[in-house]
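Internal ticket #5521
Category: modeling
Description: The requester needs a full-assembly model to guide mutagenesis choices. All entity lines are attached below as received. Residue total reported by intake: 423.
Assigned to: D.W.
Attached entities:
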Amino acid sequence: MIKLQTQHIEFSTKGNTQLVDITEKVQHVIDQSEFTEGNVTLFAIGSTTGISTVEYEPGLVHHDVAEMYHKIAPYGISYHHNQTWGDDNGAAHLRSTLTGSSLVIPFLHQKLILGTWQQIIFIDFDTRPRTRKVIVQILGK
Amino acid sequence: MIKLQTQHIEFSTKGNTQLVDITEKVQHVIDQSEFTEGNVTLFAIGSTTGISTVEYEPGLVHHDVAEMYHKIAPYGISYHHNQTWGDDNGAAHLRSTLTGSSLVIPFLHQKLILGTWQQIIFIDFDTRPRTRKVIVQILGK
Amino acid sequence: MIKLQTQHIEFSTKGNTQLVDITEKVQHVIDQSEFTEGNVTLFAIGSTTGISTVEYEPGLVHHDVAEMYHKIAPYGISYHHNQTWGDDNGAAHLRSTLTGSSLVIPFLHQKLILGTWQQIIFIDFDTRPRTRKVIVQILGK
C-alpha cells in the first residue's frame, strides 16, 4: 500500500554559493518514518538556490564548484535583474535556474541509494545569509 | 489512498530561449483535480526545451538568462549537429541537455509549494516558433 | 491501485563524457513489468555521472556536448579536488553537479512519453572506464 508524507527541513546558510550537505537530514526524515522503499522528492524553496549531488570534500566544496559557477555567471558584475530591483544577486538567480531546484532520490531498506562518494547538497547562491527550507516528500511503502 | 493522473498542457512559443511562465497552467491542473497533497511531475516533450524555475521579472526573463546561455552555447556558430542535419539549432540542443527537461514539485492543501519569487518556466531554446507540450502528471491523494 | 518497483540497470562505460543512450534499457524495464501508467525515476549512482536527454545523433553525441562541457570545466587543468586526492577527475565532478543525477519520466500505455528526437542519456564524465548502475524505480498502476 503506497503512502505519502510531506515534511520540510530548515537550516541557516551563509550564501555566496555555499554547499550544504543535507544527506543526513534527509536520511533522518526516512529513519523517523515507517517507509522502507520508495523515493524522496527534494524541492528547494526560493529562486536563488539549487539542489544537486557532489563528492563532499573540501577541494570541490570550498573552491572548485564556486569557481565553475564564477565562469558561468560571475558575482559583482552588472545584470538587468540588479537594475530592476536594486538587488545585487542577479548571478544567484542565473546559477539557480541552471542548477535546478528539485531532485528525486530512491531509497530501499530505509536507506537512500547513493554512491559512496555521492552526497546531497543544497546550494545557497544568494549574496547574504538566509534561513532556508527544503521540502522532503516521501512516496513509497 | 494514492491516485495518479496524467495530462498535458499545450502552448505556442517563439523560441530563441523564450522563458514561458507555466506556473498558473500547472496550478490550474491541480485546481481542476481532486488531489490535495502530492507532487506533480513536469516533463517537456522535445530535445530543444528545458524546465526550471526563476524569479519571473523582465531583467532575468528578457536579458540575463539568455545572456548566460549565450556564453555556454552561442547561437549562430558552427556545430557538428548542424552539419549532420543542415539544421541551425545545435545551440538549442546543448542548452536543453544542460538544463534538463523534467521537474518534480510538491503541493499541499491543493497549492504548489513554491517560493514567493519562484515561478515555473518552460524554456524554448529552438530557433523558430513551435507548439509545445508539457506532461503534467500528478501522484498524491 | 498504485504500486512500486525498484530495480537497476548496469552497463560498462568508457568515460570522458561518453553519452550512453539508455532509452531502450529503461523501456525494457517497463515492458517486463505490469505497469501501464506512471513514472520512472532514474538515479545515477556516482558523483562523476549525469542523466539528461538529447537528440542522439553523432554530431551532438560525439562532438558538441563534450565541447560545451569543455568550456565549462575542462579536463586536464588543475583543480583543488585533484590536490585533495591525487585524482585527475575534478572536471568530472563539476560536470556531474551541474548536470544532475536524477530524471523523472512519465509513461502511458506502457510507453515512455518522449519526443521523437529525444533520447535518455547517461553521461560518464569520469576519466577512465567504469561499470555503472542506474536505479530504475517505477511508481504507477
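Resolution: model delivered.
Comment from assignee: Chain A touches chain C at residues 2, 37-39, 52-55, 57-60, 62-65, 68, 71-72, 98-100, 103-106, 108, 113-115, 117-119, 121, 139-141 (CB under 8 Å).
Ticket closed.
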